[in-house]
Structure formats: C-alpha cells, structure tokens
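for the recovery benchmark. tokens below, seq after
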C-alpha cells in the first residue's frame, strides 16, 4: 500500500477520535477534529446521525487501521509486525503493541525529541540519530534493552536541536526508557509492557482480524 500523503486530520475524523498525529496542535482549538468531528466525505456530516449496525469485521478493521495510522506503518509492515508478535511467547496482542512501541521512530518520539511520530520518522530518515554509536536512518528498526539512542554530534548545532532541551522537558518519557536531556540521548531499560502503551487500542480486535 502506498504511503498516505493527504491531510492527517482526515484520519482522525475517519476513526472517530483524536490520534494526536499533529502533536501539540491537537491540544489547541485549531485542531480540525474539534471543528469537524464527523467522518470526511460528502455524506460525513449525515453519517453521525445515521444509526446502522456495525459488524464484527468492521470493528476489527477499524481497530487495525487505527493502530496502523497511529504508528505510521504500511499494511505490509504492520502485517510483518503481527507475524513477529505471533511467534513470540505470551499474548499476541500485547506482543504486537510492544513491537510497535520499540520502533526507532516511536522511541525518538517517546523520548520527547520530536513533536509527533511523523516528525520523528523524518528526523531518523535524515540520519540525525545514532543507535549504539552508529548512524542509522531506518525508522522501523526495533530497539532492544540496553540500546542507546542519541542525537549525532554533527546535528546538535542545527537550530532545531539547539532548542530541543526545552521541548523535551515538557514531556515525560515512559518508564521503559531513561532519558538524558542534556546529552540529547536515551537508553532502553526493558521492553515495553501493555500498561506502557497510552493509546486507546483494543489489540484483541486486531488479533481477531488477522485470525479470520
């Protein structure tokens, strides 16, 4: 599936809830979801007043799409993450969310070094971060406990990274990450657990979708 390049606010409206894809803007009155909370399209405004039966497949599909859009993955990537979670011991749904959380772009976002996951993906792609001392530009790379992520020395002189300390200090990292704001880095303490995922996702519906 091709990468989505349209207005991300439409994705929130399609899922019927805020996915906070624009970062801080989603907390302001400028958020499009606050102005137009109905689904996009010519008949979107009428759809919120229509009553219709929602099938099990529809609920499963919407939950899978919501998770995909939240973490910014393609369908092929998401299915690969599901297959990876399926092979691990434990609950498949919790394993899937843990795997998605361990993506490098998500870790950069969680550490507070990017405004949203799309911005974090862009920073990683442009090679502004080192992983264990080596430059990496693969946003989907999965980190492991003990891994060290930090801004590259050559990137710290850029205007964005010079003001990054103030941005990062406004965000609290999850307990599975240790952040060193002054060094613009962070360390993975352990794999994230289900309670570390703050998104309103029902992973069981995703498992049911792929188990059909």
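predicted aa per position
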């Amino acid at each position: 599936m091709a990468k989505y390049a349209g207005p991300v606010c439409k994705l929130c409206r399609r899922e019927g809830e805020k996915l906070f894809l624009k970062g801080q803007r989603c907390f302001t009155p400028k958020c499009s979801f606050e102005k137009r909370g109905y689904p996009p399209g010519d008949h979107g405004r009428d759809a919120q007043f229509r009553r219709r039966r929602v099938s099990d497949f529809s609920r499963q599909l919407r939950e899978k799409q919501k998770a995909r859009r939240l973490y910014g993955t393609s369908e092929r990537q998401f299915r690969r993450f599901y297959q990876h979670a399926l092979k691990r011991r434990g609950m498949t749904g919790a394993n899937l969310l843990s795997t998605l959380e361990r993506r490098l772009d998500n870790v950069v976002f969680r550490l507070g070094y990017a405004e949203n996951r799309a911005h974090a993906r862009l920073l990683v792609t442009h090679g502004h971060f080192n992983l264990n001392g080596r430059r990496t530009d693969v946003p989907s790379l999965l980190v492991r406990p003990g891994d060290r992520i930090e801004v590259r020395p050559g990137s710290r002189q850029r205007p964005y990274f010079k003001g990054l300390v103030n941005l990062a200090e406004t965000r609290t990292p999850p307990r599975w990450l240790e952040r060193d704001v002054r060094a613009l880095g962070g360390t993975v303490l352990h794999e994230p657990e289900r309670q570390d995922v703050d998104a309103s996702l029902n992973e069981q519906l995703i498992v049911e979708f792929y188990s059909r």
